[in-house]
Amino acid sequence: MPLWLQAALWGLLSGSALLLGAGTAWIASIPQRAVAAIMAFGSGVLISALSFELMDKAYSEGGFTASALGFVSGAAVYTAANVALAAHGAKHRKRSGQTKDSKQPSDTGSGIAIAVAALLDGIPESIAIGVTMIAGGAVSMVAVAAVFLSNIPEGLSSAAGMKNAGRSALYVFGIWRAIAVISGVAALIGYAAFSHFSMGVIAATEAVAAGAILAMIADTMIPEAFEMAHNYAGLITVVGFLVAFTLSKLTG
Question: Rounded distance, CA 211 to CA 72, Å?
């Protein structure tokens, strides 16, 4: 199977977690503490992935300047887009239910904003998946697992909001199928487009993705994990980091 097609399928797999979360929210009520535990574990896995699968490689391939500039630029671009989307109802897009400081999206606009924000979160993650295949021709399973885990609560939250707004199952799952496909395309682009660039450009791209992902973790995932499972959030995050770190060393 061609590597570009493998990249697309891995991106599609990670994006399919949005459908899994949406389907779960449509038919069942998941305890918020369970979702928070997944969020904390996924945060640890993502932090490990961006540290060792992206930033460490970016530094080795492109040096400090390219990796540092890319890292900060990725975080800055993500933050600017996130601020704009937050103003339209996507601030708590990875939250699975009502909390004392936030409420479940209950109108169509906020549900759509969350779906658009899922693209904001998913595109750098999916591009990163594709980029990890450039050097050795094999995907980073740690990166795929991390993105998959982070997407489940996002699907939960948005599907619940759109369901409350009276949207049909056909409409809701049509949106998430489209976003899952776009995730696959982004991973394909990450591999096919950037494989022709110099190592410095690839390193900067990896760093940009890492910065955007870390900003997303700090803005959306860790607050949810802490608010709903604060007594154990730190420990679960550390376990997630350790599991991903161990896998990266065993498969590296």
Answer: 6
pLDDT tens track for 91-125: 655 555 544 444 444 444 455 666 677 777 778 88
Structure tokens at 127: 């591009």
Question: Alpha-carbon distance 72 to 78, whole Å?
Answer: 10
DSSP 97: S
Instruction: Please name the residue that has the structure tokens 């977690």.
Output: 17
Q: How far is CA 198 from CA 61, 123, 135, in A?
A: 10, 21, 12
CA distance 159 to 104: 10
The candidate with the shortest Cα–Cα distance to 86, out of 43, 121, 46, is 121
Show the tokens assigned to 214.
């870390």
pTM (2 d.p.) = 0.76
